[in-house]
């Protein structure tokens, strides 16, 4: 048995359970409930997908370091839920003490379903109220109550995993908080606060903010508390008369204090209770903060800041374009170097390729022990991004440096067609971006027997997400179609074929995703000029190996025209690229900072 698991079991067995009721009130210790299981989630106190090293509790207890996963530990078992992206990784990283719960696969229960089926009367599931969102807690309480079990909380600041981790747990380092100027944000803090409050006044007199990206955007600040994410550990309370930022005081310099002049409190300070009503997002807010707000004052709604943040102002839009142009130039140079190196016989690993890429921009952590080699025999996936003052890029490119198989060409061509369809789609008032892109995979195009178990699991996970998000928008025949097309795949199903649109995948370089249209009920107006969207993306070699000659020529013409539109006065060079006995001119832009 793992020493860590043994220590955790002893620790949660000794908890004095504080019961969480259906209204998410944390009640006094119960002498009835017995803690039978401990939930360890991936998120931090702000619901972040990417967390600091100090908050990697799920990684510490399980050894699995994928970005998504939930651990549940009982007195005699340990379970790890993750989605199809990480099945292979989890299989390699989990010890024999753990059971991998493959999300989305047939007969694999969700965490909530497991709680309902396995906890009995008097049993309790322990959570940390600082690390569990209100929405998640409600689902768990509902599931537990069906078996007359309960959900209980550890004391604030007494996380069971932290107690076992002890001195080995990384310390929280005060962030180097920076102010992001209006030349990059396009709006002052005062303007943003005013806009947010105008909308908030319709619902409440105050807003509690817990999501780190919402806070960074609203206050025009950036930090380094989470690696590769420019955020600051903070909470915020915005009222009609003031804005209070709860942050580590060590992170504040005189320049920062002078920046926005809002009221500053310690990071762990309590939330004031003297306002008439407080707006809170149950999907983002943790149970501890939520329970600190008197029930009579709570008003729940999706993040108002998120709505404003999603609509970019002209400065932000230009910053995104500029960042992607600079980053795209770096990417093109990188892939040119990569093909030259690999085809000349140099030994290139994923890590050495990454280090070369860092000559153009900072990148992700490296692991020499588990990285693969980049060769001419298989696809190479590069999933990367960079932080610039005027924008952030998140770029995934899949290329083949040798001779791809017919299957790989087929898959790549389908995803290219999907991207072209998306780029030329006109957005009407009835349609949103997600309702165009989040759609069932066509089951008639590829024989399901060609898919690996991992790929089938990914498709099933994706379909479960599609079904959950689109079902409320559909009715009648459209709903029946959705339910039929998103049922789990079956190797023995005559209708068990899927389209495999190769975009990117962490393990098998084949990820299924199709883009088609569905008839939807109106969802409200969407800001649009009614015209097809124009995308300022960059085209990275060597794509011609994965496309037909006609498709490649059309794409090259479109990309070259886009580049010419952006760089009418800049020096560009034409890089002659040969593939499939086809010579095409591909413009490489010498982008200037």
TrEMBL record:
Region of interest called Disordered, as start-end residue ranges on this chain: 490-509
Annotated Peptidase M24 C-terminal domain residues: 429-489
Positions with biased composition (Acidic residues): 492-507
UniProt keywords, alphabetically: Hydrolase, Membrane, Metal-binding, Transmembrane, Transmembrane helix
Presence of keyword Transferase: no
GO cellular component term, pick one: cytoplasm
Domain Peptidase M24: from-to ranges: 320-424
Domain named Creatinase N-terminal: residues: 36-145
One Gene Ontology MF term: metal ion binding
Sequence intervals crossing the membrane: 574-591
Record's keyword annotation contains Ribonucleoprotein: no
Protein family membership: Belongs to the peptidase M24B family.
Protein name per its UniProtKB record: Creatinase N-terminal domain-containing protein
Organism: Aphanomyces astaci
